[in-house]
Design goal:
Radius of gyration: 25 Å
Oligomer: single chain
Helix content: 40-55%
Structural class: mainly alpha
Distance between the termini: 68 Å
Number of strands: 0
Order of helices and strands: HHH
Amino acid sequence: MDNTMLIQLTNLKAVGLLHELEELRLIKVLKENIGPVKTKLSDKYKGFLTQEEGHQLNDHINRMRDEWNTI
């Protein structure tokens, strides 16, 4: 039987319950303390803007910086 679930514990008391279930051979804990997967921002937003839109955005940002520097 291959029924795997990913769960998030909202109460530390659940850890004890899970270990008790494991001792009863009802479940098997595969991994503990799994942190969130950190994705690089460059990978997350890759392809979000077209190359032309990226150039327009950079031009707009540079104009805004120039305006800010003249104040």
